[in-house]
Design goal:
With 225 residues, the protein is an alpha/beta fold. It folds into 2 domains: 166 residues, Ribonuclease H-like superfamily/Ribonuclease H (Nucleotidyltransferase, domain 5, 2-Layer Sandwich), CATH 3.30.420; 45 residues, Arc Repressor Mutant, subunit A, CATH 1.10.10. 49% of the residues lie in helices and 16% in strands. The longest helix is centred in the C-terminal third of the chain and has 25 residues. The N and C termini lie far apart (70 Å).
Length: 225
């Protein structure tokens, strides 16, 4: 009983909130059935469409995911020994190992949406961390657009991240938008609260947008002083 797996993430670029990494797997012979569910790259689907498909995916595929908080992302980005790409590989390989164990070592192939500009180097790094040496790897850009199981992983990751953002907004009783730097609501929120201790855990402080706002505010304060 061979399974094909796909790995993708949601929330790599935002300034606010977590990154979600997901590995999803389905029996090889059922892979095409994902097309009937409307599975495709999550970015090509509306929020409502993603949520509807997610309800089916919960029962159609097996998956593992990890919610990565801003502090862990910052640690990787500012590290001298690793980076965000390797962090994704470390987490992705760990999730694949866990899922493969649950599937009795039956994952025969994994397709990875590559975050790196060098797919070969990324594949080599990833493979070293996978316990099952029989798994065949396919590492490429835009895999979520070209492969159904990767699209499924992207939908699961995206819906999970959206749910996490809603939880945060309800808890803090504040709306910071999508979390992406280009969102006016997000940008206004960062301008207003970037140095507020209550919201520190939300921000990726290693992001250029955050540091630029912090430096701008600091210079203004020094000028006023």
């Amino acid at each position: 009983m061979a399974f094909i797996a796909g790995i993708d993430e949601a929330g790599r670029g935002p300034l606010i909130g977590p990154l979600v990494i997901c590995v999803a797997a389905i029996k090889e012979e059922l892979h095409e059935s994902l097309r009937e569910l409307g599975v495709k790259d999550s970015k090509l689907l509306s929020e409502k469409q993603r949520e509807e498909i997610y309800k089916f995916l919960e029962h159609q595929v097996r998956f593992e995911l990890r919610i990565v908080q801003p502090s862990e992302i910052d640690e990787a980005v500012t590290s001298k020994t690793t980076n965000l790409n390797w962090l994704e590989a470390d987490i992705g390989s760990d999730l694949l190992n866990k899922l493969d164990v649950k599937l009795d070592g039956e994952v025969s192939r994994v397709i990875i949406d590559c975050p790196s500009n060098n797919p070969k180097a990324y594949e080599a790094y990833f493979k070293k961390r996978v316990d099952n040496e029989e798994i065949a790897f396919q590492v490429e850009h835009k895999a979520d657009l070209n492969h159904l199981i990767v699209g499924a992983a992207s939908i699961i990751a995206k819906v999970t991240r959206e749910k996490e953002l809603e939880k945060i907004k309800r808890k803090l009783k504040i709306d910071f938008g999508s979390g992406y730097p280009g969102d006016p609501k997000t940008k206004a929120f960062v301008q207003e609260y970037h140095d507020n201790a209550k919201y520190h855990h939300l921000f990726r402080k290693s992001w250029a947008t955050y540091t630029a706002i912090s430096e701008q505010k600091l210079q203004k304060s020094l000028g006023e002083f």
